[in-house]
Specification:
single chain; 372 residues; alpha+beta; five-stranded antiparallel beta sheet; 8 helices; 21 strands; binds adenosine-5'-triphosphate
Length: 372
């Protein structure tokens, strides 16, 4: 079901943790709430679940206001940070925990949910006989079993090894999709949010500052804070000027074209607190921040690693290769420019750069510019 959180506020003593947080998750979507530690993500999730009551605002699941209801009357499924399975119960009994005893179809539903998470036939095992990733998938099956309106996942991959995390992520996403679940995933890991979610809500200091598809948030962040939090960026002082109907952003890497458009077909759903970025436009009607024109003057340019092109010395701004990190499919090359500015470029893995090489650095494509 659709989840609509509107203007939710919450303080603990004198600490204002949620300052009017609003979030909309479309039915069947997996939305990631992405934000730094302490910004209020878990508190928001606990309010949706009913473990905390908000000081103000509304939480709707489908058409129903749930803010006054106890957790077990809300129709939410919860996947905690660590699977937290009951150690003395079999996998099947863990999955069936939220289903009424003796109800018809109980056994079939347990089997169905184990199948959804790729663990058909594991019902008789005990939790300690499963790997960490399998335990987390059982936790997802347990959350899905009572057919909740919304599934809430609180940093569910934190306890897993990095190598395991990617495959468990894929399996959990696939299970949620197979179940047609509406889900909210809380994470501070931008790669996890961008790669897993249909929609990303960026949270900062108790508010959702931007909601949109992963591609639109990366391409058109609403402000410099989001630009640097969601993805890597080299940030440099710059000046925006307009002449002959064409805007130019000038910085130490040359005269560049400011980004004006969004990503075709990947617009921001709600936009955010547009602060005069040229980049926050996706042209959709009713999108705050869309078609905002930054005023000419001083500001900041944010350059993505894949926008840098390394050429021969003399072509572009000269720099010295300091470090090459080879990842197989690509490489990250750290270059110090003559000014002392350090940039990190993503290049194809087979390009022959070595520490100590002199290169020319150029920037490709439109750039993000923020006033102020
Ligand atoms: N029950 C509580 N009593 C007092 N302060 C609390 C309580 N719960 C949370 N806080 C405070 O609220 C702030 C936000 O906490 P919350 O756990 O929601 O953040 P978070 O974004 O989920 O962080 P993390 O990623 O580190 O879990 C923190 O400063 C925390 O100390």
């Amino acid at each position: 079901m659709k989840l609509t959180v509107t203007d939710v506020r919450k303080s603990f003593g004198a600490t204002e943790v949620l300052r009017g947080a609003s979030l909309t998750v479309r039915e069947g979507d997996l939305a990631a709430v992405l934000g730094p530690s302490g910004c209020g993500k878990t508190t928001l999730l606990r309010i949706v679940a009913g473990f905390e009551s908000p000081d103000g605002g509304s939480v709707r699941i489908g058409d129903r206001e749930v803010a006054g209801l106890p957790p077990d009357k809300r129709g939410v499924g919860i996947v905690p940070q660590e699977a937290a399975l009951f150690p003395h119960l079999s996998v099947a009994r863990n999955v069936g925990f939220g289903l009424p005893r003796g109800s018809s179809g109980r056994t079939a539903r347990i089997e169905e949910c184990l199948e959804l998470v790729g663990l058909a036939g594991y019902g008789d095992r005990m939790p300690h006989q499963l790997s960490g990733g399998q335990q987390q998938r059982v936790a997802v099956a347990r959350a899905l079993a009572p057919r909740p309106g919304v599934v809430l996942l609180d940093e569910p991959f934190n306890a897993l090894d990095r190598s395991l995390r990617v495959s468990v992520r894929d399996e959990v996403r696939a299970a949620l999709k197979r179940a047609g679940a509406t889900a909210v995933l809380v994470t501070h890991d931008q790669e996890e949010a961008l790669s897993m979610a249909d929609a990303v809500a960026v949270m900062r200091e108790g508010r959702i500052v931007q909601e949109g598809t992963p591609a639109s948030i990366y391409a058109a962040p609403c402000d410099l804070g989001v630009a640097t939090f969601v993805g890597e960026a080299v940030v440099l002082p710059a000046v925006l000027s307009a002449s002959h109907g064409r805007d130019t952003v000038s910085c130490e890497l040359g005269d560049l074209l400011p980004r004006r458009d969004g990503v075709p077909g990947a617009g921001n759903r709600t936009g955010g607190a547009g602060n005069g970025t040229v980049g926050a436009a996706d042209g959709r009607p009713g999108t705050p921040g869309a078609d905002v024109t930054a005023t000419a003057g001083a500001g900041t340019v944010a350059l993505r690693p894949e926008q840098f092109v390394l050429r021969a010395p003399g072509e572009g701004v000269e720099g010295l290769v300091e470090r090459v990190e080879f990842f197989g499919h690509d490489a990250a090359v750290t270059v110090m420019l003559e000014s002392g500015t350090v940039i990190r470029a993503r290049t194809r893995g087979d390009l022959p750069h070595r520490p100590g090489d002199r290169v020319g650095v150029a920037v490709e494509g439109p750039v993000l510019f923020f006033t102020g």
